[in-house]
Amino acid sequence: MKGNFMNDYKFSIKNMNLFYGDFQALKNINIDLNKEGITALIGPSGCGKSTFLKSLNRMNDLVEACRIEGEILLDGADIYKNSIDVYQLRKRVGMVFQKPNPFPMNIYENVAYGPKTHGIKDKAKLDEIVETSLKGAFIWNEVKDRLKSSALGLSGGQQQRLCIARALAVNPEVLLMDEPTSALDPIATSKIEDLMQELKKKYTIVIVTHSMQQAARISDETAFFLLGELIEKDLTKKIFTTPFNKKTEDYITGRFG
Ligand SMILES: Nc1ncnc2c1ncn2[C@@H]1O[C@H](COP(=O)(O)OP(=O)(O)O)[C@@H](O)[C@H]1O
Ligand SMILES: [Mg+2]
Fold first, then answer.
1. H/E element holding 96?
2. Which of 35, 72, 183, 252 is the most exposed place for a label (fewest CB within 10 A)?
3. pLDDT tens per residue, range 120-129
4. Quick check: pTM over 0.70?
5. What is the structure's pLDDT at 255?
6. Interatomic CA distance for residues 107 and 146, integer angstroms
7. CATH number, domain 6-252, options 3.40.440.10, 3.90.1010.10, 3.40.50.300, 3.30.70.100
8. Which of 29, 42, 47, 51 to mutate to test the pocket of ligand 1 (most atoms within 8 A of CB)?
């Protein structure tokens, strides 16, 4: 259930440090991410946005040299505790990447894949999940007559919405999106932005974007990262009008080095 309180956080990150070998990519990060609405992560390339995002569903586990200190609480429970089932975690916290990455299989199977691996075998149930997920990702009408065609035949924007449908199919609580529109044209981008306004009613959304305009258009809160540090997080309106920190102001006004 979603809470109705202003201070109802989905994630609380406390004193987080992240290292790739000797290199410290994130430095003493303390941040709470709202359950409701969209949080945008902005900042120059290489400042640690993707690293931070991936730490929220332990995608960095795949990087051998990666080491994390501190606490990352999801609904109050530390996701880096040994007792956590990473597989279940990634079901709860889904991810969409910069480059659409549909599986080389048909459209139906792309969406049914996750539920199948989680043990759903009933054909009628799978049909229902596939339809609901594709509708939820605003792509059902475009693909309903070609569900058995290869997903690789779709346009980039359609592929990305299919990847969103695939993420929705396992019934997640959070969607992490890493520059989900940066490979798309303006029309496809606008469709995904509209979609996100719908998705935020049901899911916690955290999006990395290199576009400040996009952050300003779609997000409720914005966090500004610089050189591995969180400079500030606040209401998006505030960040883009009267930020607290001079570094944020320099960045959003384009005065940044
Ligand atoms: N797998 C990795 N191994 C070593 N260093 C990495 C790895 N991934 C990212 N980095 C480094 O961590 C820093 C932050 O990268 P990243 O999180 O991708 O930044 P952003 O998404 O903001 O562009 C960069 O200096 C990058 O080179
Ligand atoms: Mg990145």
1. strand 93-96
2. 183
3. 999 999 999 9
4. yes
5. 76
6. 8
7. 3.40.50.300
8. 51
